Amino acid sequence: MDENKVRYGLTNVHIATFTTKDGEMVYDDFKRMSGAVSLTLTPKGDQTPFHADNMTYYVFSANQGYEGALEIAEIPEFFLTEILGEQLISGVLVENINAKGKQFAMAFEFDGDKKATRQILYNCTASRPTLSGKTNTDTIEAQTSELTFTASPRPDGITRAKTTANTLPEDYNAWYTKPFDPMDSIPEIIEP
């Protein structure tokens, strides 16, 4: 299959919480977050030059994951309760400063001229969303919410994965069933 030449359209944002057992991340089932408008990922980490022989001899590069922003039509209730820790009391969402949020994986895809490219961020932590609105005028304009988050590396160093033109169909088709784990695809080395 040919590679995509262009990327456009954001869709299929899915969220899965996880727990850590014996140093391994165990993911829950994905839940879809409808209404994605835009997604921005900005790399975190600095480059540090090392100078020798009167020049930049080597550049150290630190990969600390990403800072992200997801613009969405409306943040679903499950995200507010399960991820941000808000409580549903008598049908009312209540935010408490003592609530503990949960980390999560985020899968999504961008359309392409050949095939959609699916991606996953494995270890995300979200901040409380910004709340804003404005009055209607002659026309009604939809308001959106923005979630900011950090996508950090997993304990094994993996931060993000994305499909390519050579992704196996079984991995591509199961992308939103459970988070793709690259460690499951590495053949086990058998010692003699």
Shape estimate: globular
Helix content: under 10%
> What distance lies between the first and last C-alpha atoms, to the nearest angstrom?
38 Å
Q: How many DSSP-defined strands?
A: 13
The mean pLDDT is: 89
Oligomer: single chain
Rg result: 20 Å
Structural class: mainly beta
Order of helices and strands: EEEEEEEHEEEEEEHH
- What is the makeup of the main sheet? 9 strands, antiparallel
**Low-pLDDT ranges:** none
Q: What is the count of DSSP helices, taking H or I runs of 4+ residues?
A: 3
Question: Beta-strand percentage?
Answer: 35-45%
Polypeptide structure, described:
- The chain has helices spanning about 75-85, 170-175, 180-185; strands spanning about 5-20, 25, 30, 35-45, 45-50, 55-60, 65-70, 85-90, 90-95, 105-110, 115-125, 145-150, 160.
- The protein is mainly beta and about 190 residues long.
- Strands 1, 2, 3, 4, 7, 10, 11, 12 and 13 form a 9-stranded antiparallel sheet that branches.
- The mean pLDDT is about 90.
